[in-house]
TrEMBL record:
Keywords: Membrane, Transmembrane, Transmembrane helix. PANTHER family: SODIUM-POTASSIUM/PROTON ANTIPORTER CHAA, SODIUM-POTASSIUM_PROTON ANTIPORTER CHAA. Residues 37-190, 222-364 form the Sodium/calcium exchanger membrane region domain. Pfam families: Na_Ca_ex. The chain crosses the membrane at residues 12-31, 37-56, 68-92, 104-125, 137-157, 169-187, 218-240, 252-275, 287-311, 323-340, 347-364. It is found in: Membrane. It is a multi-pass membrane protein. It comes from the Bacteria. GO terms for molecular function: potassium:proton antiporter activity; sodium:proton antiporter activity. This is Ionic transporter y4hA. It comes from Nocardioides acrostichi.
């Protein structure tokens, strides 16, 4: 578990210097960032800010405890995703209408199969068998499935609007339903049944978890630096997006690959944090991060995008293609079989990672 540096040392700590330096880099290169050396510096700034965000999120998490800790990081990472999607959609382009769908669906596949699968594989490989609360994790998974169905599956079956789009009233309903589902789950997770989302098994007694919590001032400082880190990540990623799009186009890949790259980028902090917890036999926290991020990715992104359509021009395509729906259904079935047991072997983690690899491969070669 991360510990916060104190006093004057905080000003010299890399996790303080890197996000501040990245923010300065963002301001300095906002207007001119085409030179290859500048792009390399921007990429380094994104990577450093991601690692700093993980550190500061863990400091805050240690202060507030679970499940609030994983919730802080999930919401923070989703803020990156929403900001990126809105900025990329505002920039226009051929793929602007599908940015939200492609990025949110990629986030779903990465969280449900990538983060969860890697956590289960590493945790079970290291500890032979990992345990988690099936009731809490199952309720999180069911909420994710409901959100994905309302926001990503149904638009392809409605008849009020053409293609894979929602009409204005349908989009408003989906946005409200998303907020209701997400808010209800947060109440369940943090108030009504908080004990269903805390670590179980040997990892629950890990000494690093019960180490002295950081001071209130250190926690507030880390919260501020977490915000700075996230601003740096979203801003610098925006500067990198034309390069990502050009690279995807030069390789002849479908435009949906841009959404995959963006999702991989913004979910890096949660992936690192989930793996760290899995190594410490705290897979419950890893799954909180995975499913919490998947839930926030839809439950917060879709309402924000729906509101943004008031001033954004062009169509908003949310409905999944047949192959994407097939992958989602397979993922839901496999995830259900994984969660219902309340414990998992390394094989189950590997199955999820193979599904992620399948998603990535067929995104590149549909």
């Amino acid at each position: 578990m991360a510990s916060a540096p104190s006093g004057v040392d905080l000003l010299k700590h890399p996790t303080t210097l890197v996000p501040l330096a990245s923010l300065v880099l963002l301001i300095a290169t906002w207007a001119h960032h085409e030179h290859p050396i500048v792009l390399v510096l921007i990429a380094l700034g994104v990577g450093g800010s991601v690692l700093a965000a993980v550190h500061h999120a863990e400091v805050v998490a240690h202060k507030v405890g679970e499940p609030f800790g994983s919730l802080v990081l999930a919401v923070a990472v989703t803020a990156i995703e929403v900001g990126l999607i809105v900025m990329l959609m505002a920039g226009g382009g051929d793929g602007a209408s599908t940015y939200a769908r492609d990025t949110v669906f990629a986030a779903l596949m990465i969280t449900l199969n990538g983060i969860a699968g890697l956590s289960l594989l590493i945790g079970a490989w290291r500890h032979h068998l990992v345990s988690f609360n099936a009731a809490g994790t199952g309720s999180a998974l069911s909420t994710v499935v409901a959100l994905a169905s309302v926001c990503l599956v149904l638009p392809g079956f409605t008849v009020s609007a053409a293609g894979l789009e929602y009409s204005g009233s349908q989009l408003a309903f989906a946005a409200i339903a998303s907020l209701v589902l997400y808010g209800s789950f947060l109440f369940t997770q943090t108030v009504q049944h908080r004990d269903f989302f805390v670590p179980v098994g040997p990892g629950a007694d890990d000494e690093s978890v019960h180490a002295p919590a950081p001071s209130t001032s250190a926690a507030w400082t880390s919260l501020g630096l977490l915000v700075v880190s996230l601003v740096a990540v979203v801003g610098l990623a925006k500067l990198l997006s034309p390069t990502i799009e050009s690279g995807v186009d030069a390789l002849g890949f479908p435009y949906a690959v841009v959404g995959v790259v963006i999702a991989l980028l913004v979910l890096a902090p949660e992936s690192i944090a989930a793996v760290r917890n899995a190594r410490g036999d705290r897979v419950q926290i890893s799954l909180n991060l995975a499913y919490g991020s998947a839930m926030a990715s839809i439950g917060l992104t879709i309402p924000t995008i729906a509101l943004a359509t008031v001033w954004l021009d062009g169509p908003l395509v949310l409905g999944l293609e047949p192959m994407q729906i097939t992958l989602l259904v397979i993922t839901v079935v496999v995830s259900t079989l994984t969660v219902v047991q309340g414990r998992a072997k390394a094989l189950q983690g590997l199955v999820h990672l193979v599904l992620l690899a399948t998603f990535v491969f067929f995104s590149v070669s549909p």
